[in-house]
Amino acid sequence: MQQVNYDFDFATELMSKVFMVSGNTARDAWNMVDKVVRICLNKHAGREYEDDVVRVKGLIVKRLVDEIEHPSYFNGGEKCSVQTCIVVMSREITLNYVRNAHYAKSSISDVFKAMNVDVAGAQYYLDALDEMFSPSQKCVLRLIYGEGCSVDQAAGMLGVSSGEVRSLQWQALERLQERWQALKNGSELQ
């Protein structure tokens, strides 16, 4: 991947313009963006590599520039607070980044971790199952079971039909069930 470098000194000025707040409030808001990005990366990507943080913050800056040119996200008449708007925007951009950059490359143990399953002791075995699943199946599993998306929501995020998402989901679950049955029957103990 290409190294991305940003000087975020102007980000507070953008925050001030977009959300119509003072310099100090804009600085606090940018610090909040950093925290939200790191929390989302830890939860949904399993880590917060600094390159990912910088890339996501770059996407947020791009969104803020777009907002100055074509206001659509926050128009001052919103019923939510500036902080809520910033958290929602930061989370949305971070999740889209994680979905595109990480979900298809997820290991099966990452999928289970996203579902809050303790995989301690089973991670090696689960990761050995990775070849059983296509990147699309892993992505669907992460969206449906890791994020709690509906089939329709997952389809919208992936740009495919709901039927295709259901098919990918069931194919993956069928493979997991077959492997589980083989383990229960003792035919695959290693």
Polypeptide structure, described:
It is built from nine helices and no strands. The chain has helices spanning 11-19, 23-45, 50-69, 82-101, 108-114, 123-128, 135-146, 151-158, 162-184.
**Main beta sheet strand tally, sense and closure:** none
Number of helices: 9
Shape: elongated
Helix content: 55-70%
Distance between the termini: 37 Å
Low-confidence stretches: 1-5
Oligomer: single chain
State Rg: 20 Å
Work out the number of β strands: 0
Mean pLDDT: 82
Strand content: under 5%
Structural class, judged by helices and strands?
Answer: mainly alpha
Sequence of secondary-structure elements? HHHHHHHHH
Key features?
single chain; 190 residues; mainly alpha; 9 helices; 67% helix; 0% strand; disordered N terminus
Short description:
By secondary structure, this protein is an all-alpha fold.
What's the helix and strand layout?
Layout: H1 11-19, H2 23-45, H3 50-69, H4 82-101, H5 108-114, H6 123-128, H7 135-146, H8 151-158, H9 162-184
Helix pairs in contact: 1-2, 1-3, 2-3, 2-4, 3-4, 5-7, 7-9, 8-9
